[in-house]
Structures are given as structure tokens and as C-alpha cells.
Specification:
binds protoporphyrin IX containing FE, 298 residues, single chain, mainly alpha, 50% helix, 11 helices, three-stranded antiparallel β-sheet, Cytochrome p450, globular, 9 strands
């Protein structure tokens, strides 16, 4: 993760400016998940393009999203087929996730190639735009809260990671990437918070509102990177709790710490009011995040 992060920063560091969404937050999760799945490096830029088309939410050329999904699914199916053919009898240490999925069995039954492709696709899809927005929203929150950002930079300079860890959780609570959980349906009548929900009724939980609940969080609208009592719902809750949370934490922590350490005077190159956020109800994230900084000395 550190290598991927440094590589991406190397690509724009000399220029003194960047769009942190396009140049950093967007490619990092896609390369990370591709490495984890075992997509060869030379094919990863195709993934980057397909994923880019997918998160434009149909804003690109007509039919582009469907075509990109199809290409990604097709590529994964073929990769799984190739890997299955060449799979060694004994797993090697550090074996990639696709090979793990091919090996996985439940009561002696293996996943079909189609099931393994669907699983790889969902991992990519669930772990991509979410993490882009953790890095994007998180960096934006730090740049607009100079006191908190300096606090974190001081801790990082002193080699203390504790504030980075609580800080990324706080950024998830304060302005998390996922605003709504997926649909739930009541299996029996229930009353929650004074609201009657009949059996079969759909329930949409607004995670972002729960994470600013004054009955749950002290000063919920204040960004406090050192917040301790912070059981936020940024990754959901219960049986569908985010499978990728440890990976996302690692990505978020590595990305933010490396940015603030390598580009210590990072600053916004636009007024906050000029920044545009992606539409849609489920995800919250910036379209662009223009920044400036002093290029690091070599
Ligand atoms: C900051 C980044 C991320 C955030 C904020 C996030 C958020 C969430 C949330 C809120 C849910 C629960 C949805 C619900 O209950 O309706 C969820 C589920 C899930 N996430 Fe994440 N996620 C992130 C990164 C990832 C990554 C990196 C992966 C995979 C590599 C991933 C894979 C999944 C999967 C597979 C589920 C479904 C789990 C299930 O239904 O049992 N997520 N995520």
C-alpha cells in the first residue's frame, strides 16, 4: 500500500498542483484491489478506465456504464479461467485472492467460475468508490480544518500513529462516503424510535444522519480526530458490516499520512463553495479536489 501510494504521489509531486481525486484518490483503491485480486499490473489501467466510466453514473457516453461493467465482468471471467488452469496444487504464500476464491470450497463444493467472477466484481465495486470518497472527503475535511490537520501533522512527525487511527474513524463519522445503507425489509412488525414499521415494509437507514446524532455523539458537528467514543456507522452494522473495512482503513491511513508528510503545505486551490460533489443518494464524494503545494526537494 505504501509503495502504491508513493508511486502515485511521485507522478504529480514535481508539478506543485494536482487534482487529488483524479490523480490520487481514484487510482489508489483500484490498483490496491487489483493487486489483491491478482490482476496483472499491465491490465490495471484498463480497470482504471472501466471503473472511471462506472462511477460517472451514466454521465459519460450513452451506454458507457453498461459496456464497462460488461468488459470488467468478461475480463474477470477470463482471468479466473486462466488462473484455474494454472493453479498449483499447494497454495503459495501470499497467493492472490482470485486463486483463493477458486480454491474456496463449502462442504466439498467449489465456486463456479461465474460465481468467482461475481464475487471478484462485487469486491471491486464495493471497495472502489467508497474508498475514493474516504480519501477525497477525508483530505477535504483536513484541508478545511487547519487546527485538526496541524494536530495530525505534529503527531505524524513525532511518529505517533494513534491519532491517525482515531482520525480516520472520525473522518468516516464526520463525512463518510456512504450515506445510506442498502434496503432492508422488516420480517415482522416492529417499533423503532416511536415509528411503527409493518412486516414487509422497506427501511432505509441514513448512516450519515446517525453519525451526527447528538444523542449518541458529543458535539457531533465538530471534527475531533482524537475522538474516543466513536462507534460510527460508516461501515454499516451487524451481519452486513463492511467486509473490506480493514483494507479501507489501511488505504485511508496510508493515503492521508503520506500526503500530509510528503506534501506538508498542501492547500486547496479552489474555494470550498466552488467544489462540486457527485449527485446520488447513496455515495457522497467530490468530483474534483484541486490542490497546490511546494514540490518536495529530491
Ligand atoms: C471507506 C471505504 C468503505 C466504506 C465507507 C464502506 C462502507 C460499507 C457499508 C456502509 C456497508 C454496509 C451496507 C449495508 O449494510 O447496507 C458495506 C458493505 C460491504 N463492503 Fe464496504 N465500505 C468500504 C470499503 C470496502 C472495501 C475496500 C471492500 C472490499 C474490498 C468492501 C466490501 C464490502 C462488501 C463485500 C460489503 C457487503 C457485506 C455484506 O453484505 O455482508 N467495502 N461497506
Amino acid at each position: 500500500m505504501q509503495e502504491l501510494t508513493d508511486d502515485l504521489i511521485d507522478r504529480f509531486a514535481d508539478g506543485g498542483s494536482a487534482d487529488l481525486i483524479h490523480d490520487f484518490a481514484f487510482p489508489l483503491p483500484i490498483y490496491a484491489i487489483c493487486d489483491l485480486l491478482g490482476v496483472p499490473r499491465e491490465d490495471q489501467d484498463d480497470f482504471r478506465d472501466w471503473a472511471g466510466m462506472m462511477i460517472r453514473h451514466g454521465g459519460g457516453p450513452r451506454g458507457g456504464v453498461a459496456r464497462s461493467v460488461k468488459k470488467m465482468r468478461g475480463y474477470l471471467a477470463e482471468l479466473i479461467h486462466r488462473k484455474r488452469e494454472a493453479l498449483p496444487a499447494v497454495p503459495a504464500p501470499g497467493e492472490d485472492l482470485i486463486s483463493g476464491l477458486i480454491r474456496a470450497s463449502d462442504h466439498g463444493e467449489h465456486l463456479t467460475e461465474n460465481e468467482a467472477a461475481a464475487m471478484a466484481f462485487i469486491l471491486l465495486f464495493a471497495g472502489f468508490e467508497t474508498t475514493v470518497n474516504l480519501i477525497g472527503n477525508g483530505t477535504y475535511a483536513l484541508l478545511t480544518h487547519p487546527g485538526q490537520r496541524e494536530r495530525l501533522q505534529r503527531a505524524l512527525a513525532a511518529g505517533e500513529r494513534g491519532l491517525l487511527e482515531t482520525g480516520v474513524e472520525e473522518l468516516l463519522r464526520y463525512d463518510g462516503p456512504v450515506e445510506l445503507a442498502t434496503w432492508r425489509y422488516a420480517t415482522e412488525p416492529v417499533t423503532i424510535g416511536g415509528q411503527r414499521v409493518a412486516a414487509g415494509d422497506p427501511v432505509l437507514v441514513v448512516l450519515a444522519a446517525a453519525d451526527r446524532d447528538p444523542e449518541r455523539f458529543a458535539d457531533p458537528d465538530v471534527l475531533d480526530l482524537g475522538r474516543r467514543d466513536n462507534q460510527h456507522l460508516g461501515y454499516g452494522h451487524g451481519i452486513h458490516y463492511c467486509l473490506g473495512a480493514p483494507l479501507a482503513r489501511l488505504e485511508g491511513q496510508t493515503a492521508l499520512a503520506t500526503l500530509l508528510t510528503r506534501l506538508p503545505d498542501l492547500r486547496l486551490a479552489a474555494e470550498p463553495a466552488e467544489l462540486r460533489w457527485r449527485g446520488g443518494l447513496i455515495m457522497r464524494g467530490l468530483r474534483t479536489l484541486p490542490v497546490e503545494f511546494t514540490p518536495p526537494r529530491k
